[in-house]
Amino acid sequence: MKPSATLFDEPVPAVARASWPLPEPALAYFPNARSVSDRDLDAGAAIHLRGGVDVADQQGPFGHVPVLLDRCIELLAPALTRTAADGAGAVVVDATLGAGGHSEGLLRRYPGVRVIGLDRDPSALALAGGRLAGFGDRFTAVRTRYDGIADALAQSGLAATRSVDGVLFDLGVSSMQLDRTERGFSYSADAPLDMRMDPDLPVTAADILNTYDKAALVAILRDFGEERHAGRIATAVLRRRASSPFTSTAELVELLYEAIPAPARRTGGHPAKRTFQALRVAVNAELDSLRAALPAALAAVRVGGRVVVMSYQSLEDRIVKNVFAGATASRTPPGLPVELPGHEPEFSFLTRGAERADTEEIERNPRSAAVRLRAVERATERGQE
Ligand SMILES: C[S@@+](CC[C@H](N)C(=O)[O-])C[C@H]1O[C@@H](n2cnc3c(N)ncnc32)[C@H](O)[C@@H]1O
């Protein structure tokens, strides 16, 4: 898909809440879901209405408590303050703007920094755009898939390579996307089987279930959901759709309860967890987008610039790990005692393995329980694209 890079202008629709929530908390099933949970509310989050948006207030009035915000700022700080302590002249790309929590943190902490926020979801752009309007031209929102970084930078008058100081990815779906029942991301409420982050995408989750052949369905469930019962589920889907096509999340959840054997239903979370993840990844081409976006992000940062990525499921984290391993590898042939000039690693690691949230952060922000954070810094100019 060619990313559409246009400035947002959509109004914020009102939140629709789950009509029949399952008894267990949704976060247990959606490792990468950040929704306003009962636990957030128990922890003292207040509900406000702002511009028609139903939000919880813990660190701010926009519901979505940013995951590992302090750590992200700490990791980006040295890159942003190289020329001025207030970040003047530094540019950050927030590749997953969402509700704008991380962007707001950066804009507040460094009054000279400029943030370019990307999102493919026009309602996220509208929400964050309203939230961050007070920062004036220090904040620019661009509607694009995050692998459209180069086009987004061009729109802002910046080069595709060596033009920014930091890039931040906070992958997955946002609280807002999950909470808007009608978008069909959550199996805890009955809704149309949609799951498009960008409402202009051509294929919905229902289209996949109703039209893909069995081999394609098995591949999606297995490769994007790591679902052990992919074959059984695909067979059940084909049988059901022959009499009545899928339209709603509840129909799919019901089928999954029937198709997945009882012993497997009792372990590994909700039986719909993996299938919903798989369909969402397929509808939004999430992994392809990430595979293309990471090299573009690495190319975009100047020497000393940093790329920080937070993943919430293993398929994404594996991609991040592999791309970062390549970027930090030396090209000096093995066995030579010194680095050959021009062959040294392009990037260095800022994190040892994947960092996790500590118990205090998880207690404060249950969404951080699944996070894996990895970060690198550009060490050399090598890799001129
Ligand atoms: C977890 S939320 C980000 C939350 C944000 N950091 C905050 O503090 O409010 C992830 C956002 O990334 C967006 N997104 C996911 N995949 C994307 C892609 N391939 N391209 C652009 N945006 C994407 C989603 O629409 C969602 O709004």
UniProtKB/TrEMBL annotation:
It comes from the Bacteria. It is an enzyme of class 2 (transferase). This is Ribosomal RNA small subunit methyltransferase H. Belongs to the methyltransferase superfamily. RsmH family. Its main location: cytoplasm. The keyword RNA-binding does not apply. Pfam families: Methyltransf_5 (PF01795). It comes from [Mycobacterium] wendilense. SUPFAM superfamilies: Putative methyltransferase TM0872, insert domain (SSF81799), S-adenosyl-L-methionine-dependent methyltransferases (SSF53335). Its EC number is 2.1.1.199. GO terms for molecular function: methyltransferase activity. PANTHER family: 12S RRNA N4-METHYLCYTIDINE METHYLTRANSFERASE, S-ADENOSYL-METHYLTRANSFERASE MRAW. Keywords: Cytoplasm, Methyltransferase, rRNA processing, S-adenosyl-L-methionine, Transferase. It is found in: Cytoplasm. InterPro entries: RsmH (IPR002903), SAM-dep_MeTrfase_MraW_recog (IPR023397), SAM-dependent_MTases_sf (IPR029063). It catalyses: cytidine(1402) in 16S rRNA + S-adenosyl-L-methionine = N(4)-methylcytidine(1402) in 16S rRNA + S-adenosyl-L-homocysteine + H(+). GO terms for biological process: methylation. Specifically methylates the N4 position of cytidine in position 1402 (C1402) of 16S rRNA.
